[in-house]
Design goal:
The chain is an alpha/beta fold and 160 residues long. Helix content is 32%, strand content 26%. The strands form three sheets. It has a five-stranded mixed β-sheet. It has a two-stranded antiparallel sheet with strand order 1-2. A two-stranded antiparallel ribbon has the order 6-7. Helix 2 runs parallel beside helix 5. The longest helix has 19 residues.
Length: 160
């Protein structure tokens, strides 16, 4: 499978996948009929990722009112995800992409440079997918502060 650029993805069907999740396997195609907020994050229990997950947790009622599902994806194991969910009472599933296949498919698995150390990892990104399975918006290099409010506003606009 070829990684698509952001420009290619917006307006196209979201790349389908099946991943193990904390509530069982998730097949993206099975979520048609709902808006899906698919957010990719680097690692469980790190400061930015915890803040982002808790922001989605705190806004989950607003997403559910408009039939939007929130799914978090990282390369962490299901065991790590289960601990993360329990620690922060996260009310949405986390999906495990340990081989980074889906991360690569969505173009979020990238070379990163932190203090001169180069490594591969997830670039914090969010995809908003409409009820027909079409990518409506992509947020790359997400800054956590205020992000969930931006996503919520967009989801509400899609449901009007």
């Amino acid at each position: 499978m070829r990684t698509q650029t952001v420009d290619e993805m917006v307006g196209q069907l979201a790349p389908d996948f099946t991943l193990p999740g904390t509530n069982g396997p998730v097949h993206l195609k099975d979520l048609r009929g709902h808006v899906v907020v698919l957010y990719f994050y680097p690692r469980d229990n790190t400061p930015g990722c915890t803040t982002e997950a808790c922001d989605f947790r705190d806004a989950i009622g607003q997403f559910h009112k408009v039939k939007a599902d929130v799914l978090g994806i990282s390369t962490d194991s299901l065991a790590s995800h289960q601990k993360f969910i329990a620690k922060y009472q996260l009310p949405f599933p986390l999906l495990s992409d340990e081989g980074a296949e889906v991360c690569r498919l969505y173009g979020v698995y990238k070379e990163k440079n932190l203090y001169g150390k180069v490594s591969l990892g997830i670039e914090r990104s969010t995809f908003v997918i409409d009820a027909e399975g079409v990518v409506r918006s992509v947020f790359r290099r997400v800054k956590v502060a205020g992000h969930v409010e931006q996503v919520n506003q967009l989801v509400n606009e899609l449901n009007q």
